[in-house]
Amino acid sequence: MIRFDAVSKNYPNGTTAVDDLSLELAEGGITVLVGPSGCGKTTTLRMVNRMVEPTAGTVSLRGRDIRDVAAPELRRGIGYVIQHAGLFPHRTVLDNIATVPLLLGWGRKKARARAAELLELVGLPAGMAKRYPYQLSGGQQQRVGVARALGADPPVLLMDEPFSAVDPIVRAELQTELIRLQKELRKTIVFVTHDIDEAIKLGDNIAVFRTGGRLAQFDSPERLLADPADDFVAGFVGQDRGIRRLSFVDAAELPLREGRVLSAATPVARARAVDEPWVLVVDGDRRPLGWAAVGGLPDEGTLADAVLAPLGHTFSLAGDSARAALDAALLSPSRLAVGVDAQGKVVGVADAYELSAATSGPEKDGPSTSAAPSGEVGKQGPPVHEAGEKR
Ligand SMILES: Nc1ncnc2c1ncn2[C@@H]1O[C@H](COP(=O)(O)OP(=O)(O)OP(=O)(O)O)[C@@H](O)[C@H]1O
Which residues form a coiled coil (predicted)? Predict the structure, then answer.
């Protein structure tokens, strides 16, 4: 766990880069520092590995004041990834990745074996090992940068706008890759970005800074979207936060109706009795076949005789979010979304209005239950801000 206690950084020219920051970053989670240019994100990050020394206050790592640890020793436990990867141009990919193990005196063979392992871990083919950085794309270089930072398996990873220099598609791939890696590695990651969407996608917790190096809000992405602390945070989070909040609501929690789901063997008279403009027709196994417009049903027979409108997308109750459900409803001819279980069998349907009610989600003023890091907080000295707390 990384903790900032009343930390400030003032430069001799009078700039306050970070102003009285108290913050506790959860172990094994991704904390994103986000905010407009010049708000002190990089300075905050660099105070963790002593590239920048605070003017006031204390930074501690797992309960130990980092000033008590010699900088080289401290940095052995902290990987560092920067924009443009910062690879050594005259060294091969493999030697770049092996840099830290070699510095630690692992011996060439062991260091290279570790580097080959890491190359695979970050999703690059073994054939790239002998290339030089200029022979790689920007996205591949960033992957090598991540592999190099993981060289000595450090528990902490500092990432300073690592994906900012690549195009949006590669950037999305790298973000997904980082989420995959993190599931496996459980590092304590501090990630700087000025992109709120990246912050929301990656962060277990997000610290939003305002100009002048002041913390505006520290919260989980869900809470940030649901309850921004003030107009600055609301403006920074963006206009469509209502829709984006739905990404954090599990589709399994949505209210579904079963009455509008009828088997193909149902007589049309019974379908009319449902008194809804559309019914969903399913087969004997509850697999969806399509939509029947009740006004257009034949006079007699069963729903098997009806002309069905195409089903559109379904959403899965075993893994999708409410956002996928709302999308399915908006694209459906019936404006209803079809929820299926892991086997693809229909559980029920929900309309767009009911789905949008899911945005009323978590309580407005209570503390976050999903992401607040635990630990000894605020026992002495100034209050330390945990995720979920309003400033
Ligand atoms: N060595 C320095 N001397 C004087 N001022 C500095 C120094 N380093 C940073 N600053 C100032 O401190 C403030 C915070 O800088 P920092 O790089 O931490 O911001 P940032 O939020 O990471 O910005 P960006 O998103 O543009 O990278 C800025 O006003 C910057 O100009």
Answer: none
